[in-house]
From TrEMBL, chain A:
Alphabetical keyword list: ATP-binding, Magnesium, NAD, Nucleotide-binding, Nucleotidyltransferase, Nucleus, Phosphoprotein, Pyridine nucleotide biosynthesis, Transferase, Zinc
One Gene Ontology molecular-function label: identical protein binding
Name of the protein in its database record: Nicotinamide-nucleotide adenylyltransferase
Organism lineage string: Eukaryota, Metazoa, Chordata, Craniata, Vertebrata
Domain Cytidyltransferase-like span(s) in chain numbering: 15-233
From TrEMBL, chain B:
Keywords: ATP-binding, Magnesium, NAD, Nucleotide-binding, Nucleotidyltransferase, Nucleus, Phosphoprotein, Pyridine nucleotide biosynthesis, Transferase, Zinc
Name of the featured protein: Nicotinamide-nucleotide adenylyltransferase
Taxonomic path: Eukaryota, Metazoa, Chordata, Craniata, Vertebrata
Highest taxon, organism lineage: Eukaryota
GO biological process: NAD+ biosynthetic process
Protein source organism: Accipiter nisus (Eurasian sparrowhawk)
Compartments where located: Nucleus
Amino acid sequence: MAMEDPDKKTEVVLLACGSFNPITNMHLRLFELAKDYLHETGKYKVIKGIISPVGDAYKKKGLISANHRVTMAKLATKNSDWVEVDDWESSQSEWLETLKVLRYHHQKLLSPDPTNSLQNAIPLTKPGRKRKQEPNRHDPVKKKNQSPDIKSVPQVKLLCGSDMLESFGIPNLWKLEDITEIVENHGLVCISRAGNSVQKFIYESDILWRHKNNIHLVEEWITNDISSTKIRRALRRGQSIRYLVPDVVQAYIEKNNLYSPESEDRNAGVVLAPLQKHASDSKN
Amino acid sequence: MVSRTPLILLACGSFNPITNMHMRLFELARDHLQKTGRYQVIEGIMSPVNDDYRKKGLVSARHRIAMAKLALETSDWIRVDPWESEQETWTETVKVLRHHYNESLRLLQSKKEFMKNKWPIERSTEDPLSYEHSVLPELKLLCGADFLQTFKTPNLWKEEHIKEIVEKFGLVCISRAGSDPAQYISESDLLTQFQHNIFLVKEWIQNEISATQIRYALCRGLSVKYLIPDSVISYIARHNIYTEESERENEVWTRDGNKSLFRGST
């Protein structure tokens, strides 16, 4: 057994989940900021960035087809040598909890052998937890779980903005046990603007506070408010989005005429998938 | 049908280096002016300041021009002009405006001559290049809201220059949500008099990429990807432009404050 090098850095994969509707320079910036931050601690080495667009089953208002969103993200990361797009989440027919996506990528990291892909698709289930119906499911194969103490085990951390972190507080959006497992087993890298309220939010939550060493807060000094919502709004109004999204993304949007008042009305009145799911779960 | 006035946007600044935000200002301004129905924005000009400006951390104009060129390669209407940076000394803003305005007239005149020689028969009166109906282009200064404020700084501007800028040319002033440039205008009699020629554009998508912060990040080996174009990042790396040393450039030799203030941090 190899001796553990105390100076060895932990390898990290940054995973960003979201609508990416469309992807913007701000999304891409998050990766750069997170990587710089983690490297500066001297304890981590960021080996990969993964963009995982949410599936259409998320039912968010204005969410256009995953095909387009994945394509745009791929175009946007074409000349990045470390950030890539993964469409596993978006190709599932049902909405998946973020934790499941984290687990999937974590397992994939531990066993990169492609023949293990079926195993990678199956989340570890906790005893006693109700499993929701999942299509194309095979019998679960128990994977040997590596001890989290070993430093050489790479980690998959969830990369997000302060809005996602603070969305932990929205009733029925997240399961408490999911949040716990995310911060306990994986970790968060949260990018926010100077003067934000994230620290206060963490302070006010026992779960987050307990795992605050695994929640990395990165301050972004360059105010960068390029939200996808604003991009879509600008497009509806015939305004330019150049220099807010990569040129190739802007060209793709224009060519395919992606965003309109009609597309913004998609899923209007439909309950967001996690809200629906957690409401029905609690009924059972 | 009212024909639109051709309009040229001119932005002066250090562009040290050029950032996505600089280019964004042009896009915002164009959208706004086209929306008024009165203008047809035909060109955007970026005019990097002369090295003689002596601002702290200002790298050679040769590089700043080269970077701007790379950044604007994919723009079909914005270009960088080296005239200001090629002058022997620093040039007042109003003179830069005058130069580019005269250039645009010259160009228009030579186009008209060309057309006249090519097609001696009278052209349609709707053609803006028609020598029958020549709609003179307008040239407006594109700037941030902080620029308006600088008019108040004592001894920074000559009163007659401010007047010429707002009367003869005009301003297109981009500000972010939360700031109120209309207030500065109301506080100045001169600006109020020509407020019809000061276009206020609000940027709702906050994107404050200051070139100063870009330089700091570069000196510290931090990423600036997606804040400035990839081609500019490569150029900076290739020529090793922004370093701790370059930041100290002009530190001792700054000119008296009245010239270094008004361009702002860009």
